[in-house]
Amino acid sequence: MAVDVRSFLDADSGTWTHLVSIPGASQAIVIDPVLDYDAASARIATRSADALLAEIDARGLRLAWVLETHAHADHLSAGDYLRRRSGAQIAIGRGIVEVQKHFKTVFGLDDTFPADGSQFDRLLGEGDTLEVGELRVAVLATPGHTADSLSYRIGDALFVGDTLFAPDVGTARCDFPGGDAAMLYASIQKLYALPDDTRVFLCHDYPPAGRVARAELALAEAATTNKQLRRDTPRAEYIAFREARDATLPMPRLILPALQINIRAGALPEPDAKGIRYLRLPLQVATPD
User: Fold this and answer.
1) pLDDT of 2
2) Is the pLDDT of residue 77 over 90?
3) What is the mean pLDDT of residues 164-193?
4) Are strands 62-67 and 27-31 parallel, antiparallel or unpaired?
5) Are 145 and 163 in contact (CB under 8 A)?
6) Nearest CA-CA partner of 64 in 92, 93, 29
7) Rounded to the nearest 10 degrees, what angle do helices 235-246 and 181-192 cross at?
8) Looking at CB atoms within 10 Å, which of 38, 90, 265, 289 has the fewest?
9) pLDDT confidence of residue 284
10) CA distance 98 to 117
11) Is 184 within the bounds of a domain?
12) CA-CA-CA-CA torsion for 147, 18, 139, 177, nearest 10 degrees?
């Protein structure tokens, strides 16, 4: 079944958000929505999410589900904002519980933050399905980048989150908590086993100079030309490459604010008595020998 996918780029974070529907149907799905965030001023805005809502309204659709491919480290999720504005439900992988437990400790959160996934409306795993009107969402667990990483197969479209990038960029890093290069290798090879004409929709693109950002490619292109992992890439070769490369990578620019929001399904921390909301900044203090 061919589904209609409209993709929206947040240029600041290089994030693609996808609006999925079927012509003539009444319900829609949004995958990986973005809150606008200015790191210098710590200002949050909803321009990107409001543009999505305007498009949904203009097409006479009802937003039924917001699907997160994982708890992103490179942008803030607009999931909770869309839920409050539209009544949609939010789903993410069951591995979010592991992610929440880890970052609850990192950020020193107290027991008002339950690390049980309850901030989301549904936790999904391998083999689960969602029926959204005429849309059928098949859930594929694709861990390796993170413990909670999922891909979603909807008709002829596959939404891969950070698992895969454009062929000239490569694959996800595996050095986050719960990440594992061997697991990512297996996850990507599972995706490569799908039909070659599957339409792959990326969550991010970081194009080299001279190329515009891509939202979509054919699975055959990914499986045969990805610079880091193809169908015929030996497992040991990929794991060695990935682990060596990850050891050189800096942390994402927005990882600290993003994860504090995203483990809450996009909800902001509760305000204090003066109505001000705060994020935490755990300092990594280097001490001399």
Assistant:
1) 84
2) yes
3) 97
4) parallel
5) yes
6) 29
7) 130
8) 289
9) 81
10) 9
11) yes
12) 0
Distance of CA 36 to the CA centre of its chain: 15
Number of domains within the chain:
1
pLDDT in tens, 93-118: 999 999 999 999 999 999 999 999 99
Q: Is residue 288 part of a domain?
A: no
Position 270 in a domain: no
> What CATH number is associated with residue 228?
3.60.15.10
Give the domain range for residue 74: 4-262
DSSP H helical ranges for the chain: 47-58, 79-86, 96-106, 181-192, 219-225, 235-246, 255-262
Residue in 239, 80, 243 with CA at minimum distance from that of residue 175 = 243
- 49 touches 33 (CB < 8 A): yes
CA-to-CA distance for 233 and 231, rounded, in angstroms? 6
Tokens for 178?
């719960």
What are the pLDDT digits (tens) for 149-173?
A: 999 999 999 999 999 999 999 999 9
